[in-house]
Every structure is written in structure tokens, then in C-alpha cells.
Amino acid sequence: MHIQVAPSVLASDFGNLQAAIEMINDSEADSIHIDIMDGVFVPNISFGFPVLEAIKKHAQKPLDVHLMIVNPDHYLSAFKEAGAETITVHMEACPHLHRTIQAIHELGCKAGVAINPHTNVELLRDVIRDLDQVIIMSVNPGFGGQKFIEHTYEKVRNLKAIITSSGSEALIEIDGGVNLDNAYKLIDAGADILVAGSFVFNAEDPAATISQLKEH
């Protein structure tokens, strides 16, 4: 399978969000990654439903919505209505994870689970066959532009082994500090989707940078 790239609009110019979405539309990106932060689960606040709806209005690529929030179950249907096509919740925020995954699928969305740097991939074994994707956080969630955590490669390899042995079709998505220096090693370890925020939007030519990531 070819590598997928999901630019994260958290790193874009919020004053010109439409231009950022149009750049992604015209690029080789596969989806648009949207981080929803509540200031409780992570120490930052991003945006909510009105901004998501505005993005959806202009987007021509699927919206990959990453919920970094407490009590995500309360908002799943609202995120579906606002335009989410994939909804990813954090394992650490979901005491009844299997039920949450079922609820996402019942809405007609793809379901993902994200895990923080300290969370062991073995904890996903019992739900891996129910998932469409797993986001491995390669930085601590909350802010863009952080340094990539090197232990991520081992986590990707371990998760890939779990996916293969269980017969799951879940894709592995990497979120945080992705660039051309680590993209090849991540793909080699088993990653399927690369989320890139600052690396894309701070580039002189963001669309060309997306293409470079996909060439690996």
C-alpha cells in the first residue's frame, strides 16, 4: 500500500484557513487531519464544531478528526454531523473503549484509537480487529512543533506485529514531529499514514513537501 499523508491544519494560518484547505485539496494529500483539543485532556484548546463545519465546506479530501478531549462519547454524533469521516478517540480518555468504537461505527464513520507516548500498544490487542486505524503519538499531545520521540519506531513495529497476527486491517498513523528525516524509517517500521503539521505548513512550498513525504 502506498503511504498516505494527512496534513494537520493545527499548524496552518488560522487567519487564512480556506487557503490552507484549498492547498491540501490541490495537493497529493490523502486526508485532512484535524486536532480537536479541549484544554482538559491536553494543555491546549484548538477549535470546535463551527470551524470543523467551515473546513468541511471547502474540503475535497476526507476529514480525519482526532479527538484529544475528555468524554468523547458525548460529542461523537455532533462530530459526524460537522463533517468527520474518521473519528479517533484517545484510549486514555475512554473507560469503555469497545463501546465507544461501536458507537463511532454505528454513526457510519471509520473508528480510530490514539495512544500517548507512555501507553503500551499491547493494550490495543483486544480491540484491534474492530479498528480502522491507530494513531501512535510520536510527541506528547497538545502542541505542534515538538521533537519526535525515537521510541516510536519500536512501538510501530510492535503494533504492526499485533495487527498482522490478529488479522486486523487497521492502518497505523503517526502523529507528531514527522519530517523527511524520519518518514522512511517510520514507513519501514510499518506506518501507513503520516500526519505532518509544522513540517508542511512552515515549508516554502507546502504542496511539494506533501509530495516529498509520499515519495518515500
UniProtKB/TrEMBL annotation:
Catalyzes the reversible epimerization of D-ribulose 5-phosphate to D-xylulose 5-phosphate. Substrate binds at residues 8, 66, 142-145, 175-177, 197-198. Its cofactor is Co(2+); Fe(2+); a divalent metal cation; Zn(2+). It comes from Echinicola strongylocentroti. Its EC number is 5.1.3.1. This is Ribulose-phosphate 3-epimerase. Pfam families: Ribul_P_3_epim. Pathway: Carbohydrate degradation. One of its GO terms (molecular function) is metal ion binding. A divalent metal cation binds at residues 33, 35, 66, 175. Keywords: Carbohydrate metabolism, Cobalt, Isomerase, Manganese, Metal-binding, Zinc. GO terms for cellular component: cytoplasm. The active site is at 35 (proton acceptor), 175 (proton donor).
